[in-house]
Design a protein that fits this description.
This protein has 2 domains: 197 residues, PmbA/TldD superfamily (PmbA/TldD fold, 2-Layer Sandwich); 214 residues, no CATH class. The protein is built from 9 helices and 21 strands. The radius of gyration is 23 Å and the shape is globular. Helix 4 runs parallel beside helix 5. The longest helix has 14 residues. It is of the alpha+beta class and 416 residues long.
Length: 416
């Protein structure tokens, strides 16, 4: 059954209806102890169906679009809770901004194995051992149709690699890159992992100190993705789960700029539309530290008589949409001198409290004034730390939804 026919059936019983389609293929070539060990492949294919009747929503999903899954969505709508803010987006006009690299779609396992050899090759020059690593690539396609006229589809590709290396069984180095195109510097990733492992030898404890903290792009992304983005969700604001509630127009941070841009040319989360079919767009969240707004999906926007910012995300065809960032782009002015504790990565950021902003993370590959230090703990509150910014680097990198440069903070407490 095609989407058009499915919608006709749904709208006989529902006021509004939606068909969401997703399929994809993911592949991994894994490296262990310097050798290519395994190849793993997986795929998914399915439909998610939403039906709204009398302001009650039903949802069902299946690998097959047939009358059974349509009826399940209608039946669950009948017993759902009435909510006057429920609705689906209206018809949209989309730009051609999807990112699809045919070279990734045509990539063979043999090609990935060659990339894996290139990835580990720098390790011998640094006298380190490549312990674990992965070359991964995926191809996906999504489509969405609703009874209000939304009709769109998009294809996407992604390629990623990472490597962990160990020097003299004492210190390790980790580095990774991801891109929507087949343009990764595999040798560069391997070289950086090897260099970090070698440079981290003979690390010393630093005790307790207050120092300038310099977070490299990977570390910035790990922290902000887990601690800050949550606060910009309009749903969290409305539920009073965000410290940013009621602060639009106020200066809340140092001179920091944040834009969420689903149309960013090379963004890892760039697409034509969001998880509900709303066109992707550019949303200013912070300008020179002043809060300009929040991220909305259709439901949260309805609560405030606002407009969706195209910020609905779906984990799969089997999940409902929720608010999340696309390309969360961080920028600002001011130079950095890297005098202090330079941290290349963080461990444990996912355990932070996204409501309060409190975090306690362990450093990975950290250097105090150029000398390696043993793993240390950085703890604090993201809303305090972001008021201590001293400067920004020019080494912008996107490794998750966050695109940011190195950022330097003043007077941060560190415990080794």
């Amino acid at each position: 059954m095609d989407a058009e026919k499915a919608l006709k059936i749904l709208t006989k019983s529902a006021d509004e209806a939606e068909i969401f389609f997703s399929k994809g293929i993911s592949n991994d070539v894994e490296i262990k102890k310097g050798r290519i060990e395994t190849f793993k492949g997986s795929s998914h294919f399915g439909y998610g169906v939403r039906a709204i009747k009398d302001k009650k929503m039903g949802f069902a999903f299946s690998n097959k679009l047939d009358e059974k899954v349509l009826q399940r969505a209608i039946d669950t709508a009948k017993i759902g809770e009435r909510d006057k803010f429920l609705s689906l987006p209206e018809k949209q006009k989309y730009s051609r901004i999807g990112i699809y690299d045919k070279r990734i779609a045509e990539l063979e396992v043999e090609d990935a194995m060659e990339f894996a050899e290139v990835l580990v090759s720098p390790c011998s020059s640094y006298s380190v051992i490549p312990t674990t690593g992965v070359i991964s690539w995926s191809v996906s396609e999504v489509g969405i149709w609703n009874s209000n006229g939304v009709a769109a589809s998009d294809k996407a590709t992604t390629c990623a690699c990472h490597l962990n290396a160990v020097a003299e069984s004492e210190s390790s180095g980790f580095y990774y890159e991801v891109s929507r195109a087949l343009d990764l510097d595999f040798a560069g990733v391997g070289r950086e992992a090897a260099r970090l492992a070698r440079d981290s030898l003979n690390a010393a404890e630093i005790g307790v100190l207050t120092t300038s903290l310099i977070l490299k792009p990977h570390a910035v992304a790990e922290l902000l993705e887990n601690v800050l983005i949550h606060s910009f969700s309009a749903d969290n604001v409305q539920r009073r789960r965000s410290i940013l509630a009621g602060k639009v127009g106020e200066k809340i941070f140092s001179d920091l700029n944040i834009i969420d841009d689903g149309t960013f040319k090379h963004g890892l989360s760039t697409s034509k539309f969001d998880g509900e079919g709303v066109k992707s767009q550019r949303t200013e969240l912070l300008k020179k530290g002043i809060l300009k707004g929040y991220l909305y999906d259709t439901y949260a926007a309805n609560k405030e008589n606002a407009k969706s910012t195209g910020s609905a995300e779906r984990d799969s065809y089997a999940s409902l949409p929720y608010i999340d960032s696309s390309n969360f782009i961080v920028s600002g002015k001011g130079r950095i001198d890297e005098e202090g504790l330079v941290v290349h990565g963080l461990i444990g950021a996912h355990t932070s409290n996204p409501v309060s902003g409190d975090f306690s993370v362990e450093t990975r590959n950290a250097f105090l004034n150029g000398k390696p230090v043993k793993k240390a703990i950085i703890s604090g509150n993201i809303f305090d730390v972001l008021n201590k910014i001293e400067g920004f680097g020019k080494d912008y990198k996107q490794v998750s939804s966050v695109r940011a440069p190195t950022i330097q903070f003043k007077d941060v407490k560190v415990v080794s």
